[in-house]
Amino acid sequence: MSGDGDRMRAEFDTLATWTADAALELGPDSYVAAGCRGSASPSALRWLLDQLDLGPDTAFLDVGAGVGGPAAFAAAETGVRPVLTDPEAGACAAANRLFGHPTARAAGPMPFRTGAVDVIWSLGVVCTVDDQSGFLSELRRVLTPSGRLGLLVFESVDVASSDELVGNHFPSRQSLDRLLADGGWVVVDSTPVSALGQAPSEWESTIAEVDRIIARDHADTPVWTMAAEQGQLMGELIARGVVTGRLLVADRAQLG
């Protein structure tokens, strides 16, 4: 395997299948933490949930849902019945195996009518998209006029250094804010991920055990090597302050 597309598939497709395999080996108590691996912590998800007002009757869409752990967390906390999309077949299958939520494979245009969804969240996805303006426009299309959007975005503090991570397009904070404003969004709240608490020790232990099982079964493969390199480099960029995570909640602006 070679090239940007292969590296992204290693991270988001094949690795999703391996993550589901490891979670199924560990048992149901591991599913949510395993499914959030590499995406969001409980404190970040609860911050978003406090802003989004989800409930059993909310039409809620997780875009770029990966293995589906964050959506399952939201369901357990609020009773919402999520629908998931992801561009990778392996991620869709993994989410369905672990959680059974309705899942559609979609990249670009989404298979939903205009104004069909009350709330969308999309976690760590914007920075993986080439056409970020088009992506945000499509999210706006499927939201109701009073709909609300939750985002976890990894932003670039040092553009030159952040380009080290293949397949990612980290916006600066200023460029993201401009992109949202130009695209018809009003940011109502935001917070740096670093301001929130650490994940519980049991959560971290579960993720470490998932990593151990994946390495046990696949460390001799090129895909594992690619995914491990990507994960290590992302961790280094965050540790060096080159990339920072920010949570945002935005409403649809009324365009004239």
Features:
alpha/beta; seven-stranded mixed beta sheet; 10 helices; 7 strands; 20% strand; globular
Helix content: 40-55%
Amino- and carboxy-terminal Cα gap: 48 Å
Please tell me what the overall shape is.
globular
| Average pLDDT rating | 90
Order of helices and strands: HHHEHEHEEHEHHEHHE
Work out the number of β strands: 7
Radius of gyration: 17 Å
Largest sheet strand order: 3-2-1-4-5-7-6
Strand content: 15-25%
Structure description:
With 256 residues, the chain is of the alpha/beta class. 48% of the residues lie in helices and 20% in strands. The protein is built from 10 helices and 7 strands. It has helices spanning 3-26, 31-35, 42-52, 69-78, 89-99, 132-142, 159-162, 173-182, 201-218, 222-239, and strands at residues 60-63, 83-86, 103-105, 117-123, 143-156, 185-192, 243-252. Strands 3-2-1-4-5-7-6 form a 7-stranded mixed β-sheet, with helices on both faces. Strand 4, helix 6 and strand 5 form a beta-alpha-beta unit. Helix 1 crosses helix 9 (201-218), helix 1 (3-26) packs across helix 10 (222-239) and helix 3 packs across helix 4 (69-78). It is globular. The relative contact order is 0.18.
Q: What is this structure's SSE topology?
A:
Elements: H1 3-26, H2 31-35, H3 42-52, E1 60-63, H4 69-78, E2 83-86, H5 89-99, E3 103-105, E4 117-123, H6 132-142, E5 143-156, H7 159-162, H8 173-182, E6 185-192, H9 201-218, H10 222-239, E7 243-252
Parallel strand pairs: 1-2, 1-4, 2-3, 4-5
Antiparallel strand pairs: 5-7, 6-7
Helix pairs in contact: 1-5, 1-9, 1-10, 3-4
